[in-house]
Amino acid sequence: MTDSAFGTPLPPPPDPWAGSEMPARRGGPPWLMTDLIDAEPDLAARLLTRLAGRSGAAARLAMAVRASAAAGKPVLVTGCGTSEHGAVAVAEILREALRTAGLPWRLGTAGCPVAVQAFEGSLEDWLGGEGGIVIGVSHEGGTWATNEALQQAKRSGATTALITASDRSPGAALAEIVVTTDEQDQSWCHTIGYLSPIVVGAAVAAHITGEPIDPAATRALLGAGLAADAVRATESMAAALGGVDRLIVTASGADRAAARELVLKVEEGAHIAAAYRDLETVLHGHLAGMDASTGLVLILTDQAAGSERAARAAGVLRAAAAIGVPAGAILSGVHAVAIDSPLTPAGRLLVPDAPSMPATIASIVGTVVPLQLLTERLARVRGVNPDPIRRDDPRYLAAADAAG
Q1: How far apart are CA 375 and CA 324, in angstroms?
Q2: What burial class does residue 70 get, using C-beta atoms within 10 Å of its C-beta: 0-12 exposed, 13-18 middle, 19+ buried?
């Protein structure tokens, strides 16, 4: 099956390369963000199909990752903002793939993939080193901090790679291996920019393990979040949480990438102050800063140590209920059974099981549309256009310019 079987591609990056400009303004929904979320199932299938070739960049990246891991050298993934959360997801996916392939993978051991924030990485004297690999994630390839981290990695002697939309970008010029996604996000409230590196990570993982990821199954998993009942559940949760003063998002394991991304999305797209907390951290004193004006969203789809995670998650939700915090959840089927419905009065979004996919990839891919569509519907509830991430307001544009 060719990638043309999965819909019409989004516009490519500009040639010659240029950073994106303010998104075209719409007077009301559907926003550009809405259209892009709708496009994601087909995009993922197209990308997986294209990257399956054994002589392509994804295969070369898989070989480089495997070689560094086998030698006990650093495997680092880095990015900023949405791309940073994509990097966290890619590190989780690669860790699962290396474990499946029988290579070192345990957290803290040599060769274990780890995500590093790009600015912090750029400040290190040694990043990756001889025999190591540093993989940048940058949707457009122009993020200053990510490119600085790649420069530092090159100086340390590490192999450099980049997951990006264009091989003509400044970041691509710094990388020895460039895996391009070829289709560019049209909204500044990035959705494609989060999904694309995750799909690349899945494709690289498939080359590491020798077990292909089915494009049609991936398309179906993403599409489940756009089904009519899923959209209704999302709108109900957005209505329940749209009036909160701030939002706390909590997760554990592989779900932490999605939780961090949801925090960024609701701040950028719906203009709600938000913060991420690890699952156990919420119970370690942070409830003192929460009350009925605080919303809570739990993300729980990771099947590893599932009963332990579900037990602590239920404890968080019981504590939230005791002080009147409206809570909702994004849950896999197994966890939905384990978490009593009264503990999620703001509602729940269900991620279907995907038994044909590696568990970590299924969790990370399955949460993409729910977190993004929740953001988009929260923006509707609050009367906000998510596409410009508030830079259509002169004050926020000036703030962006002031930051340099």
Answers
A1: 22
A2: middle
198: amino acid identity, one letter: I
Give the separation between CA 285 and CA 80, rounded to whole angstroms.
Answer: 28
Give me the amino acid identity at 287: L
Task: Please tell me the number of Cα atoms within 13 Å of 183 on its side-chain side.
Answer: 24
Phi, psi of 400, deg, nearest 5: -65, -40
Q: Which residues lie closer than 8 Å to 64 by C-beta, 6 or more apart? A: 133, 159, 161, 177
d(CA 110, CA 114): 10
- Measured CA to CA, the distance from residue 362 to residue 103 in angstroms comes to 21
Calpha distance 347→79 (Å, rounded): 32
Q: How many H-runs (helices) and E-runs (strands) does the chain carry? A: 15, 10
Return d(Cα 100, Cα 211) in angstroms, integer. Answer: 10
pLDDT 10s digits, 60-76 = 999 999 999 999 999 99
Separation CA 331–CA 256 (nearest Å) = 13
pLDDT in tens, 308-360: 999 999 999 999 999 999 999 999 999 999 999 999 999 999 999 999 999 99
The alpha carbon of residue 176 and the mean position of all alpha carbons in its chain are separated, in whole angstroms, by 24
Is 28 exposed, middle or buried, given 0-12, 13-18 or 19+ CB atoms closer than 10 A? exposed
- The length of the chain is 404
- Burial label, 288 (beta-carbon count in 10 A; 0-12, 13-18, 19+): exposed
- Give how far Cα 245 sits from Cα of 59, 60, 84, 299, 385, Å: 46, 47, 26, 20, 18
Is the distance from CB of 191 to CB of 183 less than 8 angstroms?
A: no
